[in-house]
Structure formats: C-alpha cells, structure tokens
Amino acid sequence: xxxxxxxxxxxxxxxxxxxxxxxxxxxxxxxxxxxxxxxxxxxxxxxxxxxxxxxxxxxxxxxxxxxxxxxxxxxxxxxxxxxxxxxxxxxxxxxxxxxxxxxxxxxxxxxxxxxxxxxxxxxxxxxxxxxxxxxxxxxxxxxxxxxxxxxxxxxxxxxxxxxxxxxxxxxxxxxxxxxxxxxxxxxxxxxxxxxxxxxxxxxxxxxxxxxxxxxxxxxxxxxxxxxxxxxxxxxxxxxxxxxxxxxxxxxxxxxxxxxxxxxxxxxxxxxxxx
Length: 274
What we know:
Elements: H1 2-45, H2 51-77, H3 81-98, H4 100-115, E1 123-126, E2 129-136, E3 140-144, E4 150-154, H5 155-160, E5 164-165, E6 171-181, H6 186-198, E7 210-217, E8 220-230, H7 234-251
Antiparallel strand pairs: 1-2, 1-5, 2-3, 3-4, 6-8, 7-8
Helix pairs in contact: 1-2, 6-7
C-alpha cells in the first residue's frame, strides 16, 4: 500500500502541473472559442452569402478551433503526437468508409454553394427529377414539381450528373411545329404564322420571330415557328402560341392533314351472268 501511495505521489508531482495546466487551457480555450464563434457569426451575417454557406463557415471555424485546442492539450500532457496522429488517421478512415455516401453529399452541397450551378427558385432537371429548387441544404436539394410534389435529390448525385437549368438566362425560345397539307401555298402559311406569332402577348420583337417550312413528310408540310420571350413568361407564351396559331390557320382555311377524312369508294365486282 505504501509503495502504491508513493507511486501515486510521484505521478502527481510529475504530471500534476501538466494536468492543471491542461485544465486551465481547456477552460480558457472554450471561452475563447465561444467569443471567436460569435465574432465569426456576426461577420458572416454582414455578408451576402447564402444562409447555408454561413452555417457551414460558422461550424467549420468552430470545429477547426476545437481541433486546435485538442492538439494543444495533448501536447501539454506530453502524449506522443505520432501515436495521436496514427489513431486519428485510422479513426478518420473508418468514419470515412462508414459515411461515404453522406460525405459525398456533403461535398456536393459545398460545391453547389461555391459554384452555384443553380439557385433557389430556378427550374432544373437532373437525375430524373424536374421542378423548382425550393431549398439547398448540406446533404440534399429540395425540388418541387409543377404538380406540387416534393423531391429530395442527394447533392452528390447532382454534382456527378448533368443539370439542365431552364431559368439560368433571362430569355428563352419557344418552338412549335404545325402540320399543313401540301396543297397550300407556303408563303401564305408563313405569313399567317408570323402574323399570329407577332401578335401573341409576351413574344419579343428582338430576336425576330421565325416561321419556315422545316420538313416534308409524305403529303404533309411541317412548319416550325420560333419565338423569344422572357423566361418568366415562357409557359404563357408556349400555350398562347398553340392557340393563336391554330386559330389563325383555321380562319384562313389552312387544314391540318389529320383533320381530313380519306374516303375510298370500292366498286363491287359485277356478278357473272349465269
């Protein structure tokens, strides 16, 4: 017993000062991290960064400070850093393998916030999902479809797939095809389509609307109209063009070949006179 107490006293005399110093460093360090964290939060609040970016920066700074504090305490206690580094490396590898998908999504979310291939409110299509971007979190992007269904797309998938952003530009082009019978004057059809297109609300005069014969299919002409509009008016212009051009063609007696009914009269064979 006396030998044990002696060893305990020796350890206390050897390590007591280091332990007390480590405790003091921990207390001071936690207080310093708290104040630094508040200062970083105030600084990021003054920026125009996305709210998710602010959260990532604030948490990242705190994690970094905690790691520095931990390393400092370990150094004070005299623990060999080579052993600590080896332990952290093996632990990091195990965690990385266990959370590979989550880390991929986290990295994808971070890249989306940095490079901004799309933003909240944009209409996008990717990985089979299409709709308006409602929220971009660290791991998932929330997409609302036109019929108000919610889709959560992993950020890792978005960064590794093609993303079509329909609202990235201020202007979009509307394309429509119309089938016309081939016995109609082409210039008349072009004139009617151009006039109807130009009079459609929301169609921009520049670039000028386009109407041309673009294909021939058996006894059918296919005319294409192209009109530019503001992106926010795309769907209104899209449907208005269908209605206005169809009505203009009908008013000018220009038929859709599918509306014609082909009738073939078959004359029965005369019976042989007996």
